[in-house]
Design a protein that fits this description.
Layout lengths: L3 E2 L1 H8 L5 E5 L3 H6 L6 E2 L5 H8 L7 E4 L5 H11 L5 E4 L2 H7 L10 H14 L3 E2 L1 H9 L4 E5 L3 H6 L6 E2 L4 H9 L6 E5 L4 H13 L5 E4 L2 H7 L17 H17 L3 E3 L1 H9 L6 E5 L3 H6 L6 E2 L2 H6 L7 E2 L2 E5 L4 H13 L4 E4 L26 E3 L1 H9 L4 E4 L3 H6 L6 E2 L5 H4 L9 E4 L4 H9 L7 E4 L2 H7 L28 H25 L8
Parallel strand pairs: 1-5, 2-3, 2-4, 4-5, 6-10, 7-8, 7-9, 9-10, 11-16, 12-13, 12-15, 15-16, 17-21, 18-19, 18-20, 20-21
Antiparallel strand pairs: 2-14
Helix pairs in contact: 6-10, 6-22, 9-12, 12-16
Length: about 525
């Protein structure tokens, strides 16, 4: 029987310095409405896909929580079956935590978001309003706007004339992009956190220019009635030899100031051999293109800016060791400096980077636990297409709704895997059921969840990606819903109606600012901003 842990005991364990993973197994939409501050969202629907990366050590103490739906108990049984041996469930779930007088939080990536606000307060990070920036741009003043988000977000919307330079890339690439020391450098993101951290990164790096954060980012620009660009693809090039020399000197200053520690490849190998008794995360903080070209075996891609912005999505085990790798140490050092200030005490940079070490190419493919024990009758894309033409099958997509909306098998229904049995009642009866997901692996797991019976259950081999690769069409939208769309956090940009979108953006920005007082009252975070 899985033991329960009382809220007061969990609160104490979260602060005792030992390894522990607090996992909320609800869908992200529900998680974003209220959750424990230090919880990582690991939905039961995707548990097998996420857990090996987020909690790689099977002996890690794990505490599971939900809102009383029984999901935590189901997750505990699955994890026990995968070899995790130290599992507990929060007694009373979220209501029990609140009844004990302990605070709950809304939103996502709350520790990182709160950290950004604390940095602005502690460092007095300068900022510029959207209207003032627009005035200066119109006047032709010497300035550059650097967008600290990943290129995908930049393409969706950007400040006119901006250059994409995500997070840890700023101190690495800035020196060739800024034409003179008297050029104003403006750093922006969508809201506040990455603007603040990005601007303060350049200030900490000691660049000669005046650096400011764009207050409230692209949201602030939009709320000021200014027009955003869409579909732009302007990104900063890799540094020149002279630019790299300046970047290395800047990183050396930051490493000395924040006591960034370095280890060699031999030490890393020894630490990775200790996987049964100590968790070591190995993150490659370079761009995706660089990572795909070659990285250390077992390293997870975690671009430096995103790792600081959403640490809970990469490292669910608190007090674990973190090793950061790149090719020049610059981006790893800049990232490490922030993680250390966030309270991650055991953070290290791989000295010398990956140069001269054996590398592997391609994308990281997370290990999906339990997949080998989830046999499912498969069907190839062409065969499924033939069945659909004859109206002989019903397709259900158990992928995230955001991805389903971008493109799915024509006629497919959307459902959340954890509630798939309930969703069946909303589907056309009797016909064979074909499950799909992005690469087909989640669909196989979902097929194994369903009870046997007269209805034939199949999984699309290779998933929707294989369907598209076969040259078959995709259908966008959310036309057929067999379930509630609560599996992803709702962005402030999500509302199509301008008035609602504006209200959502204002509420989001206020939420970020208010986090400083909220996390201070909770007392669980151990920030050391210097």
């Amino acid at each position: 029987m899985i033991p329960a842990i009382a809220p007061a005991e969990l609160k104490a364990r979260l602060g005792d310095g030992g390894e522990i993973a607090l996992l909320d197994v609800r869908e992200e939409g529900g998680f974003s409405t209220r959750h424990l501050l230090l919880a990582s969202c690991v939905p039961l629907s995707r548990l097998e896909l996420l857990i090996d990366d987020l909690v790689p050590r099977r002996g890690t103490p794990i505490v599971l929580c939900d809102a009383g739906e029984g999901l935590a108990g189901q997750a505990a049984e699955r994890l026990a079956g995968f070899g995790y041996g130290d599992i507990a469930v929060l007694a009373g779930g979220l209501d029990g935590w609140a009844a004990a007088g302990l605070p709950l939080f809304s939103g996502v990536n709350v520790p990182s978001k709160a950290f950004g606000e604390v940095v602005e307060t502690a460092c007095h990070t300068p900022h510029i309003s959207a209207s003032e920036l627009h005035r200066r741009m119109a006047a032709g003043e010497k300035l550059v706007v650097l967008d600290s988000r990943p290129i995908e977000e930049f393409r969706a919307m950007s400040i006119p004339g901006a250059t994409d330079m995500p997070g840890a890339e700023l101190a690495y690439r800035v020196h060739d992009v800024v034409p003179s020391p008297d050029t104003l450098v403006v750093v922006n993101c969508a809201g506040r956190t990455r603007s603040i951290i990005g601007a303060q990164s350049l200030i900490n790096a000691g660049i000669a220019n005046k650096v400011v954060a764009l207050k409230d980012g692209t949201m602030g620009w939009s709320l000021a009635g200014l027009t955003l660009d869409h579909g732009k693809d302007r990104s900063a090039p890799p540094p020149s030899p002279a630019g790299l020399d300046k970047a290395r000197a800047a990183a050396a200053r930051v490493a000395a100031r924040f006591d960034v520690r370095k280890i060699d490849a031999t030490t890393l190998a020894l630490w990775r051999q200790e996987a049964l008794r100590r968790t070591t995360y190995l993150f490659d903080v370079r761009t995706l293109e660089e990572y795909l070209a070659g990285h250390l075996d077992g390293a997870v891609h975690a671009p430096g800016g995103q790792l600081v912005q959403a640490t809970d999505k990469y490292a669910a085990t608190r007090n674990a060791r973190i090793v950061l790798a790149d090719d020049t140490e610059v981006r790893a050092v800049m990232t490490a400096s922030w993680l250390l200030q966030m309270g991650w005490r055991d953070v290290h940079v791989l000295a010398g980077g990956i140069a001269g070490l054996p590398l592997v190419a391609g994308a990281h493919r997370p290990r999906v636990l339990g997949l080998e024990a989830a046999p499912a009758e498969g069907i190839k894309p062409a065969a499924l297409q033939a069945m659909l033409v004859r109206n002989e099958a019903v397709v259900v997509d158990v992928e995230l709704s955001a991805r389903h909306m971008r493109g799915h098998v024509p006629g497919a229904w959307f459902a959340v895997r954890a509630r798939l049995k309930r969703a069946l009642s909303r589907l056309p009866p009797a016909l064979p059921l074909v499950l799909t997901s992005a690469d087909g692996r989640l669909a196989r797991l979902a097929a194994a969840d369903l009870p046997g019976g007269d209805r034939r259950i199949l999984a699309l081999e290779g998933g929707t990606e294989a369907w598209a690769a076969a040259g078959l069409p995709l259908e966008p939208g959310l036309a057929r819903l067999a379930d509630d769309v609560d599996d992803v956090w709702r962005s402030p940009y999500a509302d199509a109606e301008p008035a609602k979108r504006e209200a959502a953006m204002r509420a989001y920005l206020s939420w970020e600012v208010d986090l400083v007082e909220q996390v201070a009252r909770d007392g669980s975070l151990n920030f050391h901003v210097g």
